[in-house]
Amino acid sequence: MKALFCKIVDFFENTFLKILKILKLNSLAEWYQKHREGMRYLVFGFLATVVNVLTFWLCEKIFHFSTLCNNIIAWITAVIFAYVSNKWCVFESKTNTRKELIVEMFSFFGARVFTLILETALLIVTIDYLQFNSIIMKIISNILVILLNFVFSKLFIFKKTEKQTKN
Fold first, then answer.
1. Of 128, 127, 147, nearest in space to 137 by CA
2. pLDDT tens digits for 6-21?
3. CA–CA separation, 167 vs 7, rounded Å?
4. 72-77 contacts, C-beta under 8 A, 24 or more apart
5. Of 5, 51, 58, 98, which residue is least crowded by CB atoms under 10 Å?
């Protein structure tokens, strides 16, 4: 499953880079390759958002659950997708033991729960109490969450050991 997923990602990424080169945008292709990890993080973050919204919509239309239930199911689905795609394609994390995998998974989900709570608190304070524009605050809070999730993933969750960096 992992190999197929990564082959598909590599195919689309290589096709994109070839198109850039055909369009004589070599410097953009080089920039992308230099910042590949961050670019993949953005792409898979966008896809995780699509998974989140589609799952929410499907739960609403098919199962007619409450908004809270729909949101929880959508968030869980999106975080699972984000974990797998971040592990396999963004940070290319290698875990050698079941214990390492469990620690990595709990760290990832724990960080996501932390940023979910942080975002919710920020939205309640700024929208409900301070009466700021809800859309602007949602955008600002999402930018903060994306940045924090990247930092947590890069520095704490999918950190490469010295041995992995050499390979």
1. 127
2. 899 999 999 999 999 9
3. 19
4. 75/116, 77/51, 77/52
5. 98
CA angle 7, 97, 35 (to 5 degrees): 40
What are the residue ranges spanned by the domains of the chain?
Answer: 35-160
CB 112 within 8 Å of CB 82: yes
163 has a pLDDT exceeding 60: no
Classify residue 158 by burial, with Cβ atoms within 10 Å: 0-12, 13-18, 19+. buried
> What is d(CA 73, CA 71) in angstroms, rounded to the nearest whole number?
6
